[in-house]
Amino acid sequence: MQEEKSKQENTLESEENMQNIKDFGMTDIQNSRGKIHCLSIVGQVEGHMLLPSQNKSTKYEHVIPLLVSVEQDERIDGMLVVLNTIGGDVEAGLAIAEMIAGMTKPTVSLVLGGGHSIGVPLAVSAKRSFIVPSASMTIHPVRMNGTVIGVPQTYEYFNKMQERVVNFVVKNAKIQKECFTELMMKTGEIANDVGCIVLGEEAVRLGLIDEVGGIDVALECLYGMIEEKKKEKEQN
Predict the structure, then answer these.
(1) Distance between alpha carbon 206 and the CA centroid of its chain, in Å?
(2) Catalytic annotation on 140?
(3) What is the pLDDT of residue 151?
(4) Which whole number is the average pLDDT over 151-174?
């Protein structure tokens, strides 16, 4: 009877995972080394305004409560954040990044394809960050769509928002503030814009990302962090 109940629970959990993959690109993985949650941040990070239906997007109103759930769920040991994003809403992206950075559970990020614009703070928000050699990251100043009022207050607003992004990246990565600002203001690399694009190994050399590696290395690092966390609990 107990075995049949356990099989039913596993079947329900499997079906729920498949639905989460389909709806949100998220899933839980469990094995003998622990249970981890995989969060995908793909396409464009959606903020307060709805994006067109044909856009691939990551909705912050889905991700933020999910992060609270992962942090509080005693069954989940750690989280893997997989990024392939073009960026998006600055405040929504920063909100998600701050949530990840504030988690007590082991977190590892992996940049695949691209971690552009607000994807940079998201990539460095985990306790350990990885990037594949072929991935790229675009670093540029804060931009805004729509009507911009040409007054000093608008400049101050842009300046403060940009400072928030810079300070977060510098706090959570090994890159120096002067170096990151210089990359952000670089000219001649991006058509009709300032900024630059860095590839996998260069991102590590600059101190933006911790290590070059794929899914195997990222998972091994995460499981290692989980084991250390379990040992700390046992000692206490």
Answers:
(1) 19
(2) yes
(3) 79
(4) 88
Distance in angstroms (rounded) separating the CA atoms of residues 138 and 170: 16
Going through 89-222 in order, the beta strands assigned E by DSSP cover 107-115, 128-131, 136-139, 196-199, 211-212
Pairing of strands 34-46, 26-31: antiparallel
> What is the model's pTM?
0.85
In the block, residue with structure tokens 């596993």: 10
* H or E stretch at 24: helix 2-24
Indicate the range of 5-9, 124-128, 223-227 predicted with least confidence: 5-9
CB 212, CB 131: distance < 8 Å? yes
Average pLDDT, the chain: 87
Is 109 one of the catalytic residues? Answer: no
Please pick, among 117, 125, 129, 134, the residue that the annotation labels catalytic. 117
The Cα–Cα gap between 60 and 64 comes to 6
Q: Measured between alpha carbons, how far is 92 from 118 in angstroms, rounded to an integer? A: 9
CA distances to 45, 95, 214 from 166, in Å: 18, 14, 26
